[in-house]
């Protein structure tokens, strides 16, 4: 490899190297054996239930925007075309809903949250993320969890465009947390210097929501 090729990719890899050196997004999680795949208190479903506040917004691609703001070097207001021009990834993951259903092996395509973070460059003080959606829903999570390897801003499910009832045209999927953290119809990602409660978190749900530790309610 020449010095030239090192410098051309440096813009994209700088933040990754910095995060790696800080150990910033290392959550210490390891892959689990198949027998230990279902978190405590969960049961398996084959269908995919729809859960939301009841209003499923119609978001036209022409007017769709994804804002990334707050503790970032390069805030964004991405059009659909700009979003689809970002590196596209594919992930397969399990869903764990706090209402006790889990669904295995969901195939998602979209933009890995890490690739979006490479674009915006989080500032050192950013520790948490607040997500806001087109239906007014909000939810919060630590930046390290938002940046997890499996986390994706999904535009397809099982090879088909994400349907409106499941959050189309784009939703977040953070599979290692309860599914209420996976905002449907996502419109805004704000990086914060501390934690703040979103909709369900203000209504008694856990600030983190780790299914493996059964963090359903704020006192769990
Ligand atoms: N914008 C938005 N996102 C949301 C919700 C919501 O009401 N509005 N509900 C959350 C909850 S509680 C769950 S369990 C999942 C359900 O996603 P699904 O309907 O695709 O199964 O979406 C989450 N994301
Ligand atoms: Mo939920």
TrEMBL record:
Pfam families: Oxidored_molyb. InterPro entries: OxRdtase_Mopterin-bd_dom, OxRdtase_Mopterin-bd_sf. Residues 56-200 form the Oxidoreductase molybdopterin-binding domain. This is Sulfite oxidase-like oxidoreductase. It comes from Rhizobium grahamii.
């Amino acid at each position: 490899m020449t010095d030239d090729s090192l410098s051309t990719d440096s813009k994209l890899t700088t933040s990754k190297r910095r995060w790696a050196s800080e150990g910033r997004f290392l959550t210490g999680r390891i892959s689990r054996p198949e027998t230990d795949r279902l978190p405590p208190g969960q049961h398996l479903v084959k269908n995919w239930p729809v859960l939301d506040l009841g209003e499923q917004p119609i978001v036209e691609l022409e007017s769709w925007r994804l804002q990334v703001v707050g503790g970032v070097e390069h805030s964004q207001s991405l059009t659909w075309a700009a979003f689809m021009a970002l590196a596209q990834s594919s992930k397969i993951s399990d869903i764990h809903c706090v209402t006790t259903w889990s669904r295995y092996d969901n195939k998602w395509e979209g933009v890995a949250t890490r690739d979006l973070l490479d674009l915006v460059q989080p500032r050192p003080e950013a520790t948490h993320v607040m997500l806001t959606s087109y239906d007014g829903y909000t939810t919060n999570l630590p930046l390290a969890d938002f940046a997890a390897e499996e986390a994706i801003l999904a535009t397809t499910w099982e090879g088909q465009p994400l349907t409106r009832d499941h959050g189309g045209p784009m939703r977040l999927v953070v599979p290692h947390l309860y599914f209420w953290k996976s905002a449907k119809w996502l419109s805004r990602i704000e990086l914060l210097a501390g934690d703040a409660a979103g909709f369900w978190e203000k209504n008694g749900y856990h600030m983190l929501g780790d299914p493996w530790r059964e963090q359903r309610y704020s006192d769990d």
